């Protein structure tokens, strides 16, 4: 995926949307191609207002983002325990939005203390996109201690400031006493903050911007007031361009109004104050650019028509006059409640705001560290599953399912058809399949093969394949009573692209026919397996955890190379750790020596790969331990492919991680066969079967 910066609030009312878009503008002005992504629409008090971020991005940045997922829909998925499915949808939104970009700016959700779902969604999105988090804080006072506490609290939900996840902070709405408007004052404020805040000073958190509070950017148009009040427009004048800098209730007599007539003032007075209407008109004719005049109580009283006619020249000068219902008190109160967000059609104010923010951001570090270096992304589980499904869709492969009358398999086949993942073929008695569909409607497009109708045609081919082993046609006919054997023969005869079984069969029953009939690919020494372990932040590859009981050094080297290729096929950068009970030269013995020899052989065969061993699991996986146990290793602490010395170690480790850490594991995926055949756990869920089918289709596409 493209590098992404996820902007997350560390306090309330931070101006998250405008800061996110301001960052986008700042990067654009430095020649960076930017995508803007709002994964989930912000929940709003008035749903009719709609999501503004996408509209802003299109008008201000020239970017047309994919429409965000509505918040109520996302919250419902979260409540139903479908967070992973939601993240896959967000990955899809992200991928569609970032195809032509160098980097993505991702706007998170404003966290509502009454609804902590927003915070949980922010964490999940940042993790799923492997995004670098930039905190946005409204620093409206000079209390740096309080700022420290807010940043620490906000960053802790993403793992803390000392992790690779949280990288920077933008301070918005900084008081003018702390950061003035000039370039020199801005640079001075940046320097001061970097010295006073420990995390800024140490470099664990980059201060990326210091945006002063600018009241001028809050000035709405008179048109916005008219819309908010639902006022009738008596005289439009320059209603769409005049800005309201102050609101004044006019109750005094005309001789005492001289100081009231100032540029940008919006005057409110009862509709029967003809004297105020005339005085205001004279001020406008004189050239004072008032924001406008609001005549209150206009639902019960109206200005004298003759007076309005006398005031006509004021309209030609641009003075807007509004007629608002209700008392002056009600109208004044309503004006004070106007939403300060920028209307989507106020391009002038939006551009001014984003320009101001962009001028006060220091993007050089982001460009250097986040874009120029192209930091390697960790493929999150939702991203892995999304890519897997996309690869399978593009491949459009025919996949055989010999356990066609198994309810989970039927449901998986229907889902794969609906999502376009593969052309699944259910093998089994059609009546039994429909009876066991458990309420799932099987579309007519899904192919169902009755084994009773087709077995006979494969008797002779199977006998020919195994004649050198003494297999007769009578024996072949008996083997073909097993639908797994039947599907394997079909696959061997190139009548399909892959096969998935194991929901009701043992691993041996699934693999044995493939070893006999499909056989090993020319480049592979043995058939082996890998599991894709979907940890919270990334996907790791474990091999071999299902097939080879006690491989020798040459076989172990081959497993390492095949596993690295499998990782690469599915978008995981291979860094191969050869696992043992000791690290480096710290111990000897036959088992350690086998791993050491296998490491040497694998390096000789693929010098371009990062392979190291022997490494203990903790040294391979944890950077802090790697620094002490294997400081010079190119793999230790950052391994993505873990090769275990034997089946006992591999199977035990994968199950321990899967069950103890509640990790989803996809596999085992068989590697080294001429055609893809994959095994399922007998406890597999429908989703497990779906993604194993997708794996199989993607494998077939790579051959």
Provide an overview of this structure.
This protein has 703 residues and is of the alpha/beta class. The chain is built from 29 helices and 22 strands. The strands form four sheets. The chain has a six-stranded parallel β-sheet, with helices on both faces.
**Helical residue percent?**
40-55%
Structure summary, number of beta strands? 22
Sheet with most strands = 6 strands, parallel
Name the structural class: alpha/beta
Mean pLDDT: 88
Low-confidence stretches: none
State the strand order across the main sheet. Answer: 2-3-1-4-5-6
Shape: elongated
Head-to-tail CA distance between termini? 24 Å
Taking all Cα atoms into account, the compactness measure Rg is 34 Å
How many H/I helices? 29
Proportion in β-strands: 15-25%
